[in-house]
Each structure stands twice: as structure tokens, then as C-alpha cells.
């Protein structure tokens, strides 16, 4: 691993650690964009854009579009786009979450996305996300919260009480996943004889916000998820692997952001979109199936004819991690399409359009890899297995734009802790930079 690769991976580790929720990921990206001189745009205001300048805008606090306007008109040069997603499968806290069972305080959770449930047991869990509160003046405000310290655990059932656990252990999300936060203190009362308010989640959150310097009268609502407090780490005898939560798909968000920041004076407009809600189908105002990206592109193009000309010259790289071949389950892959870790980004192909890659867009991405002097691989699911999907087909259908679906190979997708290669994020980043900075459009 070269020093450049080591520095890149440390940046990725810092980004993962700072981004326990989609809202935190967006906030972390905004800080980097601001430091690089990008300016904020507001969807409700008129835009006055200057070639060569970078801009960003956020929708819902959890989806972001950032772009650098090129020197050439968009209807002549098109837009070079990278798409990723900010969300990861997790356990989200329900609105009326408090549960008191057998003398323990728990919180009810809802499974978000296709969670691999077993690895969530016996982890040191914390909470992060968005909170909406009313201040003392009666104004509704929002803030991010990251508790950071371990405050909960989902204990496994001892094998003595479930002798078939290693053969067949079904998890009921309603009954078996509520994390334990502590002992039931409901017998404690305040000076007025009322139950101790520390048991009420909203009051606990309000206290946390006040300690963080916010003027909080009442917490109104929240979007909170549990996460594993174990930090990202380099793993392996030669540190060949990076192990972390949320590699799917914050790795792609980070590599796409670094590629955009590298495009200093582009001839064509370079754009990064990181949507929320990919893990649950993308059908939302902030998801890839919503109008966020299309509305920005239409504002960049002007009238309808210029928009259509722009889209015909544009390309979107949908970056979302791919399934690396597992040494213990190699039969789960097609024998000629099993991507290996640290062997380069993966071009994802599916004849039934679960991925939007075509032979044209696959050839283009190979060209970007050749320009960057990095290897590449292919993934095609076994013909007797179902195939996952990502934002690529959604964007292709909605926008009519050319799309290639790619991603860094990883193990343990949708687990609470995933593993990728220390070279692959770098390889992907180099290919994306070549797309933005070196490709002449032909």
C-alpha cells in the first residue's frame, strides 16, 4: 500500500467514523465541500451560477447534490455524474419506543432495509440521527445527535436455552431485536411524585441537546438509528482489508466526493448525487426515484430542448459496493464472475436490468480504469439466483441517461460490520477521477 493509498484510506476511515447516520454523512460532506470553496444553493431561490465554481444543496438533511460547473455549456458537453447513497441497513427507533420488560428498559426498533440480523447481537450500540425540537421561544429547530458512547445492547439467548442455535435460529424482529438500555427505574419518582422523566426518550434527548448547547424546550420528533460503536479498522497480516460499519455505501460517497474535489477546472460539468432511501427502494422525495436530481439538471440546462441535448451527452456512474467472492462460500458466485478483494472496481451486469450497465457504458468504464491505470472486474449473479439492484436502473429509467453500475468488492454486505479491500476504494477513486478529469467525452 503506497502512502497515497494509506492517506486515502485514513480519510475514508475518518469519514466512516464521522458518519453514523445519513444526516451525519451529508453534514460531513458539506464540511469538506465548504473547505474546498463550494457554495450552498437553496432550491427555493434563483441561482446565479459561474463556470468553474462549485456548488452544493441538501434536501431533507439526508440527500446531497454537489457539482462544479464546467467551462462548456451543459447542452454541448453533457454532465458527468456519479451517484451513490447515504443510507445503510440498520435498526431505527420507533416513535413511541419505550418498553418495560421484566425489569429492563428497552426501545422498540424497526428494521430498515435488508438487515443481516444475527451480527447485531452482543454489540456495544449507540444512537445517532436527526432531532426536531422546539426552543424556549417556540421556534421549531433541528439538530444532529451522536451519543458516541455505548448505551445499549441486544443480548443473545444462551445456547443452553436454544440448543439448535447453530443449526436454525430464527429472529423475530418485533420480539428479539429491542435493545436493552438499562434497568427499569419506573419506581423512582421526582419531587411531585411523577415517574422519573429519564425514562422518557424525548426528555433524555432534550437533556443531551441542552448539554451540547442547544436551547431546548421540548423534543418534538426524531429520526434515530442504532449503530455499532466499534471504530473502523485496518485488518489482516499486511492490513489488506478495511473493516467497518456502513461501507455499503459510504465508501462510494467518499470516493465520489474526492473525485469531485479533484475536478478543479473541468471543461464539462461534474456532479455527485448521494441519495437517501436506496436500501428501501428509493421511492421518496429524497430518494433516487424522486425528483431531486432531475430538478437540478433541468435548472442547469434551461429549456426542454437544451435539457434533452444535455442528457443525450451525459453519463452517470452508479457507484455501490459489489459482492466479493467469499472463500468459504465460493459456490454462491458464478465461476467466471467472482470479484476478488483488492483486484479493482467491479462492473455489475444483469441481463434482466437489475443493473443498468450496457456494453457501451461497460466499455466506457473500462476506458476510465485504463486511463487511471487501475484493474477492473465483472460481477454477474449465478443464473439460478436472484439479483440485487441499486440506483442505476432507477436513474436510467427516470432520466433516460446512460448508466454504468460499478462498485468496490466487499464481504458481509448489510451486516453491522462489513469488509472491503484497502486498495479497492483507492482504485475506484482513481477511475472516478479519470472520468471527471481526463475523459474527453469521446
Automatic annotation (TrEMBL):
Keywords annotated in UniProt: Aminopeptidase, Hydrolase, Metal-binding, Metalloprotease, Protease, Zinc
InterPro entries named among the record's database cross-references: Peptidase_M18, Peptidase_M18_dom2
GO BP annotation list: proteolysis
Enzyme class: hydrolase
A GO CC term assigned to this protein in UniProt: cytoplasm
Pfam families registered for this protein in UniProt: Peptidase_M18
Enzyme Commission designation: 3.4.11.-
An example Gene Ontology molecular-function term: aminopeptidase activity
Gene3D superfamilies per UniProt: Aminopeptidase i, Domain 2, Zn peptidases
Obligatory cofactor(s): Zn(2+)
Family (UniProt): Belongs to the peptidase M18 family.
PANTHER family: ASPARTYL AMINOPEPTIDASE
Name of this protein: M18 family aminopeptidase
Amino acid at each position: 500500500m503506497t502512502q497515497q493509498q494509506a492517506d486515502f484510506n485514513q480519510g475514508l476511515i475518518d469519514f466512516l467514523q464521522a458518519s453514523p447516520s445519513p444526516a451525519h454523512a451529508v453534514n460531513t460532506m458539506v464540511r469538506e465541500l465548504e473547505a474546498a470553496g463550494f457554495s450552498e444553493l437553496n432550491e427555493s431561490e434563483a441561482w446565479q451560477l459561474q463556470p468553474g465554481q462549485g456548488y452544493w444543496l441538501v434536501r431533507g438533511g439526508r440527500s446531497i447534490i454537489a457539482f462544479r460547473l464546467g467551462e462548456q455549456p451543459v447542452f454541448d458537453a453533457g454532465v458527468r455524474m456519479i451517484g451513490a447513497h447515504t443510507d445503510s441497513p440498520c435498526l431505527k427507533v420507533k416513535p413511541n419506543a419505550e418498553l418495560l420488560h421484566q425489569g429492563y428498559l428497552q426501545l422498540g426498533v424497526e428494521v430498515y432495509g435488508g438487515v443481516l440480523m444475527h451480527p447485531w447481537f452482543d454489540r456495544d450500540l449507540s444512537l445517532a440521527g436527526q432531532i426536531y425540537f422546539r426552543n424556549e421561544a417556540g421556534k421549531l429547530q433541528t439538530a444532529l445527535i451522536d451519543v458516541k458512547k455505548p448505551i445499549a445492547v441486544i443480548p443473545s439467548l444462551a445456547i443452553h436455552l436454544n440448543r439448535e442455535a447453530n443449526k436454525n435460529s430464527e429472529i423475530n424482529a418485533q420480539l428479539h431485536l429491542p435493545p436493552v438500555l438499562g434497568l427499569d427505574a419506573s419506581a423512582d419518582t421526582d419531587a411531585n411524585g411523577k415517574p422519573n422523566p429519564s425514562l422518557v426518550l424525548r426528555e433524555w434527548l432534550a437533556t443531551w441537546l441542552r448539554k451540547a448547547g442547544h436551547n431546548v424546550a421540548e423534543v418534538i420528533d426524531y429520526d434515530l438509528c442504532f449503530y455499532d460503536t466499534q471504530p473502523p479498522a485496518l485488518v489482516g497480516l499486511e492490513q489488506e482489508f478495511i473493516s467497518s460499519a456502513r461501507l455499503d455505501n459510504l465508501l462510494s460517497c467518499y470516493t465520489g466526493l474526492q473525485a469531485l474535489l479533484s475536478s478543479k477546472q473541468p471543461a464539462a460539468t461534474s456532479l455527485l448525487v448521494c441519495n437517501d432511501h436506496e436500501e428501501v427502494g428509493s421511492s421518496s422525495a429524497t430518494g433516487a426515484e424522486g425528483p431531486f436530481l432531475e430538478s437540478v439538471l433541468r435548472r442547469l440546462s434551461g429549456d426542454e430542448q437544451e435539457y434533452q441535448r444535455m442528457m443525450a451527452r451525459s453519463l452517470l456512474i452508479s457507484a455501490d459496493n459489489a459482492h466479493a467472492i467469499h472463500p468459504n462460500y465460493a459456490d454462491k458466485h458464478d465461476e467466471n464472475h467472482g470479484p476478488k478483494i483488492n483486484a479493482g472496481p467491479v462492473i455489475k451486469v444483469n441481463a434482466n436490468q437489475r443493473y443498468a450497465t450496457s456494453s457501451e457504458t461497460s466499455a466506457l468504464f473500462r476506458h476510465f480504469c485504463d486511463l487511471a491505470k487501475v484493474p477492473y472486474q465483472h460481477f454477474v449473479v449465478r443464473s439460478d439466483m436472484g439479483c440485487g439492484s441499486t440506483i442505476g436502473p432507477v436513474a436510467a429509467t427516470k432520466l433516460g441517461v446512460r448508466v454504468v453500475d460499478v462498485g468496490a468488492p466487499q464481504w458481509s454486505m448489510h451486516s453491522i460490520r462489513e469488509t472491503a479491500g484497502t486498495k479497492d476504494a483507492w482504485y475506484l477513486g482513481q477511475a472516478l477521477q479519470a472520468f471527471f478529469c481526463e475523459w474527453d467525452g469521446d
